[in-house]
Amino acid sequence: MAPETTEASALLAQVPVFEALEAADLERVAQVAVPRRFDAQQVIFREGDTSDTCYVVRSGHARAVREHTDGRTIALAHFGPGDIFGELAMFDDERRSATVETLDAVDAIAIAGQDMRRLLREHPDIAVKLVIALGRRMREANERLTRQSFQTVQSRVAGVLGQLVQQAQAEGAGDKDVLVTITQADIAQLAGSSRESASRFLAVLERAGVVTQGRGRVTVHDASALENYIY
Fold first, then answer.
1. pTM for this one?
2. What is the pLDDT along the chain (231 residues), one digit of tens a residue?
3. Is the dihedral of CA 125, 109, 138, 113 positive or negative?
4. Of 155, 163, 165, whose CA–CA distance to 222 is shortest?
5. Which of 11, 103, 124, 202 has its CA 20 to 30 A from that of 153?
6. Alpha carbon distances (Å) from 201 to 77, 194, 204
7. CA-to-CA distance for 30 and 28, rounded, in angstroms?
8. What does the CA dihedral 40, 44, 45, 47 come to, rounded to 10 degrees?
9. What pairs with residue 65 in β-bridges?
10. How many other C-beta atoms are found inside a 10 Å radius of the C-beta of residue 215?
C-alpha cells in the first residue's frame, strides 16, 4: 500500500461514517481519495452548488453556514481534524444545503461522488455498512436536537463550548486553558440562541473564572466546570 493511501486509510478510520468498515474497505475508499488544500477564509463550496465531492479534514478548521432570507449568515457546524462534510455526495448529486468555508488553512482528502458510487456498486457490502452508520448519525442528531429543545440557553452554550474543547483536546490541547477560536455570534448560532443571551452567559462564565474571552476566541480554563451548567 502506498504511504499516502496508508495515511488516508488511517484518517478515514477516525471518521464515524466509516467506523463500521474493515481495513480492506478503508483501503478501497482511500484509493479513490485525493489530497486537497484550501487557504484560510476560502469557500470550499456554496449552498446551491452541485453536490459532487465529500471531504475529510486532515488539519485545520472549517464551518458550515447558511444565509438567512434577511441576509444574515447563520453558523450550523464547525469541522476539525477527522470530521467529514458533504458526505451525502457519496450517494447522490443533489444541491448543497449549506456553504462550507475555511477558518484557517485546511488540508483534507476529497472523495468524488462518482468514484464512491462506483466503489459502492462494486462492493455492495460497503454500501450497507455506510447506510447503517449514516442512520446511526441521524438518530444521534435527532436525539441531540430533542435534548436541546428542553435545555436552557446556558445549558446549550455550555454544551457547545464543551464540544469545541473536546475537539481542541483531540488536536493536542491540554486539560486546562484550552483556546477555542470562535466568535460569540457563532457560539450563539451553534447553541440556537440569540447573541445577546449567549453573551450574557459567557460573561457569567468569565466572572466565575471558567473562561476568558478575547476577540474571536475563548480560553476555557476549566472544562470540567462547564458540566455544572449542562442539564
1. 0.76
2. 666 788 999 999 988 888 888 999 999 999 999 999 999 999 999 999 988 999 999 999 999 988 777 666 778 888 999 999 998 888 887 889 899 999 999 999 999 999 999 998 999 888 888 888 888 877 877 776 666 666 788 888 998 899 889 888 888 888 889 999 888 888 888 888 888 999 999 999 999 999 999 888 999 998 889 988 887
3. negative
4. 165
5. 103
6. 20, 11, 5
7. 5
8. -40
9. 75, 99
10. 6
DSSP 163-194: HHHHHHHHTT--SEEEEE---HHHHHHHHTS-
What is the rounded distance in angstroms from the CA atom of residue 184 to the CA atom of residue 71? 18
Residues, the chain, total? 231
35 with 79: CB under 8 angstroms?
Answer: no
Helices (DSSP H) in the chain: which residue ranges?
3-12, 23-31, 113-122, 124-149, 153-170, 184-191, 195-207, 223-226
Query: Order of strands, edge to edge, in the sheet holding 73-79?
Result: 43-45, 99-102, 62-67, 73-79
Which pLDDT score, from 0 to 100, does residue 131 have? Answer: 84
Cell numbers for 40, please give them: 484560510
Mark residue 27 as left, alpha or beta (left: phi above 0; alpha: psi -120 to 50; beta: remaining): alpha
> What's the angle, vertex CA 80, arms to CA 202 and CA 33, rounded to 5?
165
Instruction: Give Cβ neighbours of residue 69 (< 8 Å, ≥ 6 apart).
Output: none
